[in-house]
Amino acid sequence: MAGELILIVEDNEKNRKLARDVLQFTGYRTIESDTAEEGLRLAQAEHPALILMDIQLPGMSGIEALGRLRADPRTAAIPVMAVTASAMTHDRQKIMAAGFDGYQSKPINVKEFVQAVRALLDRPAGGGGPA
């Protein structure tokens, strides 16, 4: 079901707008931040169903922000998808090893992006993939 609230943490205005437009067109509600620090505040206040997190942000990185989200009982269970231009295999492995629930490389493929968002939202609470 669409209508879920998704937090977009992305410092590039064009990338943020693309994600927002695609998600809103698909029926999701969105809130946005251009820094990890503001993203953390929004996550605590709004408790979105999903967070889309850029990795290379000004100030705190997306990986550090993920660590803070996981350490906070209010936000620990929120799924977080990395959306990053770091598309090299070792970058992806490092990002997923940090504890992200999903990964999309930029520029995004709209169809794959929407499918990945839906898959994370449909995943049972508590996470994990197939047994």
Keyphrases for this structure?
Rossmann fold, 5-stranded parallel beta sheet, disordered C terminus, 131 residues, alpha/beta
Polypeptide structure, described:
This protein is an alpha/beta fold and 131 residues long. It has one domain: Rossmann fold (3-Layer(aba) Sandwich), CATH 3.40.50.2300. Helices cover 44% and strands 18% of the residues. It contains five helices and five strands, in the order βαβαβαβαβα. The protein has helices spanning 13-26, 36-46, 62-71, 89-97, 110-122; strands at 5-9, 29-33, 50-53, 80-84, 102-105. Strands 2-1-3-4-5 form a five-stranded parallel sheet, sandwiched between helices. Strand 3 (50-53), helix 3 (62-71) and strand 4 form a beta-alpha-beta unit. The protein is globular, with a radius of gyration of 13 Å. It starts with a strand and ends in a 9-residue tail after the last helix. Residues 127-131 have low confidence and may be disordered.
